[in-house]
Amino acid sequence: MRWIYLAILTLFAVATIVFIVQNLDSATMTFFGFRVQAPLALLAAAAYVLGAVTGGSLFALLHRSVKGAGPHRAPV
């Protein structure tokens, strides 16, 4: 099973490297009047990281809300 995980990780790393090499052209992103010009691969990576952080935070908040709503929780 370890070899399967290693193979998947290797394929993901190779795909990421290919994406970066193929998307070095500069792109402009505008949001609420802010303008950023950077390589497309960098903008995509920043969007991915921001999505992961906000998605993880939302998941943690929802998990805490559902866990805290249980009937067996004693008041503090």
Model description:
With 76 residues, the chain is α+β, with helices and mostly antiparallel strands. The chain has one domain (2-68). The protein has helices at residues 2-22, 40-68; strands at residues 26-31, 34-39. A two-stranded antiparallel ribbon has the order 1-2. Strand 1 (26-31) and strand 2 (34-39) form a beta hairpin. The N and C termini lie far apart (45 Å). The model has no long low-confidence stretch (mean pLDDT 82).
Proportion of β residues? Answer: 15-25%
Strand line-up in the sheet with most strands: 1-2
Number of strands: 2
Secondary structural class: alpha+beta
- What order do the helices and strands follow? HEEH
Question: How many structural domains in the coordinates?
Answer: 1
Name the poorly predicted regions.
none
**Biggest sheet details:** 2 strands, antiparallel
Question: What are the key terms here?
Answer:
76 residues, alpha+beta, two-stranded antiparallel ribbon, 2 helices, 66% helix, flat
How is the topology of this model organized?
Elements: H1 2-22, E1 26-31, E2 34-39, H2 40-68
Antiparallel strand pairs: 1-2
Précis, in short:
Helix content is 66%, strand content 16%. The protein is an alpha+beta fold and 76 residues long. The protein has one domain (2-68).
